[in-house]
Amino acid sequence: xxxxxxxxxxxxxxxxxxxxxxxxxxxxxxxxxxxxxxxxxxxxxxxxxxxxxxxxxxxxxxxxxxxxxxxxxxxxxxxxxxxxxxxxxxxxxxxxxxxxxxxx
Length: 104
Hints:
This protein is an all-alpha fold. Helices cover 58% and strands 0% of the residues.
């Protein structure tokens, strides 16, 4: 399944859908269970760090350059929201807490 995130334009719907898709892929869960897992991970700093690790792992495993760019955008957005504090969001450049883009 292709990710929906557009690296040049933030969409909360695509951002959330892609997080569910990535959790489903990485943990081999159906979408409903992946949504529940995403909610569980989002509740604590440790869970958020685990979520960042999951998504960073997906980025490292992605062979398609366009899909990898989408995952990089998700990592940057999560880092901007404070997920994985102190981490470099999969080593992608330009990742800091102030890179987050508001929806138009």
